[in-house]
Amino acid sequence: MTIKSKMLLIILLGIGGLFLANFYSSVQLNSAYKQYSSEESLTAHSSAWFSNMDTQFVSNLLTFDPLDGSERNANFWEAGFDAFGGTGDTNPLLASISDKDAETAASLFEQVFSDPIMEDQITFAVAYDDRGLQLYCESSLYVVGVDPCAETAQPDYFLKFGSFVKSLETGSVRRVTKINDLSGEQPVSINDTLAFPLRTEDEDVIAMVVVGRNVIDSLEQFAENFEIESAIAIGEQALTVHDYYEEERPAELNKLIRSGLSHARDTGTFKYSFIAAQQNTRVSSIPFSKEVRASDLRILIFDDQSELLGALNKSETIAYVIFVAVALVILALVFLVTTSSFNRILNAIHLLERMGEGDLSVEAEDHSRLLSSKNDEVSRLQSAIEDYRSHRLEAEENRKERAKRRDERDTIMFEKMALLAAQLEGQARDMLTQEISVMRESVSSGSDEEKERASIEIMSQAFSRMSDEVSTLIDARTHELVAAKDEINSSIRYAAKLQNALLPKTMPGDFDINVEWRPRDLVGGDIYFIKDFPDRVYIAVVDCTGHGVPGAFLSIIARSHLDKAIVANNYQSAGDYLSSVNELLKETLSRSDQKNTSEEGFDGGVCIYYRKDQRLEFAGAKSSIFNVDGFEATETSGDRKSVGSTRMAPDFKFTTHQIASPKGAFVMLTDGITDVMSPEEKPIAFGRRRVIKILRESSDKTPTSIVKNIMSSVNLYRGDAPFRDDLTLLAFSLIEEESEIHAAAVGEEP
Amino acid sequence: MIFEAGPRTPLVELTASSCLIRGECYPENISEWSEPVLKTLEECLSQGQGEFKVDIELYYFNSSSAKFLFDFFEFLEESAEGGKAITINWRYRAEDDTMQEAGEDFEEDLSACAYNMVLVDDESK
User: Fold this and answer.
1) pLDDT at res. A716
2) Half-sphere exposure (CA, 13 Å, Cβ side) for A651?
3) Contact residues on chain A for B124, CB-CB shorter than 8 A
4) A369 confidence band (pLDDT: 50, 70, 90)
C-alpha cells in the first residue's frame, strides 16, 4: 500500500467518523427537541383545556349556584324570597316541594331552566326531592348522546346515590357526570355538572338540583382552536365527536386512539405525549379534569406534526447532503494535492535513482504549479536535489580537470624517466624502460581511482629514482667534507702540538710554579712565557686578541717579541720591557697590514725577578698581579692599555711596579678567568674580586692549591655554560731556602 | 630602529633622541655586527635636534668588542664636541666589578659627554 493510498484511506475514515459523530449528535438533538416540544405541548394543551372548561363552568353552570351564582338565579333558591313573580316572602318553589306539589314545582323549575336550556347555556337540568324522586328534568333539544331525561338514562351518581346526597350536605359540588344509556343505543355522555341542595328556612335539604353541560361542545371548540383531533378516554374506552353525531370514525383516528390507549397501558402513565411515527402525529394524553382520576377519564389529543417532522427531516437531509458534499470536495482536494505532491516526489526519486546510476543530465520538473509553491516541502526537496546535482556536476568537472592535469604530469614524468633511462646503460636501462612501459600501461587503463593511484605510484617511483641519484651525490659530497674536516682537524691538532711546544718546559729551580693553560679550542691566543737567566727570571702571561687559529698566530708573534725584547745583560725594568714589546709588536703589525683597523695585540702582565736583589718588578697591560701572603691578598694593577693596539702610541711607557722582598704566592691570569659568566639571563662576570677572595680564604697558599681552588671555583661558577675564551692561570712562589744555592749554582754555570 | 639581541650580541635600540644597549657582546666578527649599528647611530644623531641620551647596560664584552665601544664613545665624544648635548649612563650591578671597572675606564676618555655611572638593582636577585 503506498503512502498516498494510506493518506487517502485515513482521510476517508476520518470523514466517516465525523459523519457518524454528526449523525449521532443530530439524532440526540432531534430527540431532545421532540422531548422538549412534547412537554411544551402537554403543558399548553392541558392549561388550555382546563381554562376552557373552567370558563365554561363559571359562565354557564356556576351562575345557578345558590351562594356563588348570579343574583337572579340565586334568588330562585332563597327560602324567604319569591323570585317567581309573586310578592310574598315565601319561596313558592320550596313551598311546592315541601307540599309535594310536583306539578307546581316542575313548572317553577321550568321557569328557571327553560331559557338557559333553550339558549344552550346548559345541556340539562334535573331536580330530585330528598327521597331521590325526580321532580323535574329538562334537556336541550340538541342533546347528543343519551338524553339525560330519557327513561334509559342513568347518571353515574345514581349508582352511589347515598354518598351523592351526603356530599351535598356541605354545599354545592362540581363533578363530572357520566350518563349511560341503559338501552345501549346511545353513547355515554360526559357532562360537567354543578349539583347543589335546596334548603328550607330551617336549613333542611328538601331537594337537589343538578345542572350540566355536555363537554362535547368544549371538546369540539378545543379541537377547533388547536386544529387537532381529540377523543375522550374512559378507562379502556374512547369517545369521539363522531360517536355523538353517529358518524363512522376515520380509520386513521381509530389507529391513533388505539396507540394512545396502548401507550397508557404499556407505560402505566396517563399524562404523556409521544409521536406516532406512522401517522406523523403527536399523541398527547391530559387529565380530563381535576375532579376525576386520569385513569378513568382523560383527553386524548392528536396533533398532526407532519409539517414539523417534515421540516426536521428536511433540515437533517440538507445537513447530510452538505456534509457529504463538503467531504467529497475535501477528499477531491486532498487527492489532488497528494497526487501532485507524490508525482513530484516520484519525480525527485526518479532523479536520485538516475543520479545513483551516474546520469546527471536529468533536470527536476518545474515546481511552479497549481497547488504547489516554491517553498513547500517538495519544492525544497527538488531544489536540494537540484543543488546536489549541480555540485555533482561541478565535482565531475573538477574530476575531469584533475584527470587532465594528472595526464600532463604523467607525461612529464615519463619524459624525465625516459631521459634518465637514456643516461643509463645495459641492464639498468632495459629495466627502467620496461618499468616505464608497465607504468604507461597502468595509467592508461582502469577506473579514475586506479589511474590516480597509478599516477601517484609513478610519481613516487620517479622521486625514488631521483632521490637515489641525489643521495649518491650527497654521499660523495659528504665524503669530501668529512675528509676536509678531518684534514683541518688534524692540522689544528698539529698546530696545537706546535703551540704546546712553545710553552716553557722547564721551570726555574727556585720557583714553585703551577699553571692552568686552557685554550677554548685546540689552539688559542693565550700563552705564558718563562725565561730563566742566571740573575733574573722573566714570567709573562699574555692574552692575544682573538682565539683559535688567528689567536694562536698572534700568540706566536707575541712570544717571539717577548723573547726579542729581553735585554739580557743590562738592567731592564719590567715597564721598559713591556714598552719595547709594544714597540716591536706595533711595528710588526703595521708592517704586515697597513689598513689594520682592528685591535690586534695583547693584554697581559710581565714579572721580572732579580735574584740578587730579591726584587720583583711587574708591569701590566690591562692586567694585574695578585699577591697572597698569610691572610692578606692584594692586587697590583698594570696600565689600562693594550700592547700593540692601534690606540697605543708606539712609545708608550708602561709603569713598573716594584715589589721588594716578595713573600707568599703571586697570581697572574688572563680574562678567560675573570670573564667566566654565571649561567643567568643577565649574567655577571666572575671578576677579580672573587679571585682576591679565594686567595684570602684559601687555607693552603701553595701555587698548586691556589690554581686548583680558583679553577674549581670558576667551574662551579659557570655551571653548564661553556668557556667563552682561552684562559691562563699562573701562580708562583719563591722557594726561599734554596734561592741562594740556586743563585750560586747559576753563577757557576757559564 | 631596533637591533634584536643575538646569542652573542646585545639588544640595541636607536631613536633620534636615545640609544639603549643591553646584554652581552662577544660576536665572532665584531665589525660585521658593529658597522650597521654605528651607521644608524650616525643617522640618529644627525636627525635628532635636542638632547641625546645613551643607556648602556652590558654584562660582558670581549676585547674586540671593547674596540667597538671605543669607536662608539669616540663618535659620541666628537658629536658632543660639535655642540650636541649627550648624556651617557653606564649601568652596572653592584656585584659586577668587571663592568664597573670597564665603565670607569671609558669615563676617563670622555669629557664633552655627560657621563654617569649608574648602579642598578638586579631584579633577578
Assistant:
1) 93
2) 0
3) 680-682
4) low
Question: Long-range contacts for A406-412 (Cβ within 8 Å, ≥24 apart)?
Answer: A406/A443, A406/A451, A406/A452, A406/A455, A407/A443, A409/A455, A409/A459, A410/A443, A410/A455, A410/A458
CATH of the domain at B26: 3.30.750
Q: What is the domain count for chain B? A: 1
Rounded CA separation A276/A286 (Å)? 16
Please answer whether residues A337 and A371 qualify as being in contact, where contact means their C-beta atoms are separated by less than 8 angstroms.
yes
SS3 A111: helix
Q: How far is CA A364 from the centre of its chain?
A: 34
Nearest to A285 by CA among A231, A227, A226: A231
- How many Å lie between the alpha carbon of A500 and the closest alpha carbon of chain B? 24
Give the tens place of pLDDT for each residue, B69-99: 988 999 999 999 988 899 999 999 988 888 9
Q: Is B75 on the interface with A (CB under 8 A)?
A: no
Q: Which residues of B touch A675 (CB under 8 A)?
A: 60, 62, 98
A interface with B, Cβ–Cβ < 8 A, is 543, 545-546, 597-599, 603, 640, 642, 647, 671, 674-675, 677, 680-689, 724-725
Task: Note which residues in 80-119 of chain B have CB less than 8 A from chain A.
Answer: 93, 95-99, 105, 108
Q: Categorize the per-residue pLDDT at A542 as very low, low, confident or very high, splitting at 50, 70 and 90.
A: very high
A677:B95 CB<8 A:
no
What DSSP letter does each residue of B57-90 carry, written as one string? EEEEE-HHHHHHHHHHHHHHHHHHHTT--EEEEE
How is residue A343 written as a grid cell? 508525482
**Three cell numbers written together for A633:** 691578598
Range of the domain at B100: 2-124
Cell of A335: 487527492
